[in-house]
Amino acid sequence: MRRFARFVATAGGIGYLPVAPGTLGSLLVLPVVPWIAAGPPLAVALGVVAVTALAVWAAALAEDGFDVHDDGRVVIDEVAGMVVMASLVPTGWRAALLGFVAFRLFDVWKPPPIGWLDRRVGGGVGVVADDLLAGVYAGLLVRVLVEFM
Are 133 and 117 in contact (CB under 8 A)? Predict the structure, then answer.
């Protein structure tokens, strides 16, 4: 079971790549962002809950195995954050690309309270929570930007 959790946590091994694993994990979701954004709200909400639950579970088991909180090899949190972002943006590739850039910006910058969550909350929830909030920030920012463009 731990082996499967590590496979999920590293997004099929992407987390082991030596350059920008978080960005690459985020890119995994980019091709489906317009599809998620256009999905039926109930299905999208259930998908967000399912991906979040899977991410928390896998991150918690992987964290125990890696012996480090929020190890860089764990990228399922970026996947979950991108899914949250995708659930909030308007449909279309422009919004998807803006959302990807905004998500990476918020994930790296960690404005309040994202940084606080990252430092203070432990376990799988702590690994994933900051990325979920970065996804919310990115999705809302893109929604506002697209409305005014």
Answer: yes
Q: How far apart are CA 22 and CA 2, in angstroms?
A: 21
CB 106 within 8 A of CB 130: no
pLDDT tens digits for 24-69? 999 999 999 999 999 999 999 999 999 999 999 999 999 888 888 8
* pLDDT tens readout for residues 113-146: 999 998 999 999 999 999 999 999 999 999 999 9
Q: What are the φ and ψ backbone dihedral angles of 39, each rounded to 5 degrees? A: -70, 160
Joined tokens for residue 61: 């088991």
Q: Report the candidate in 132, 40, 144 with the shortest Cα–Cα distance to residue 85.
A: 132
The whole-angstrom separation of Cα 145 and Cα 130 is 22
Could you tell me which residues come within 8 angstroms of residue 92 by beta carbon, excluding any fewer than 6 positions away?
Answer: 34, 37
What is the spatial distance between Cα 53 and Cα 51, in angstroms, rounded to a whole number?
6
Model confidence pTM above 0.90? yes
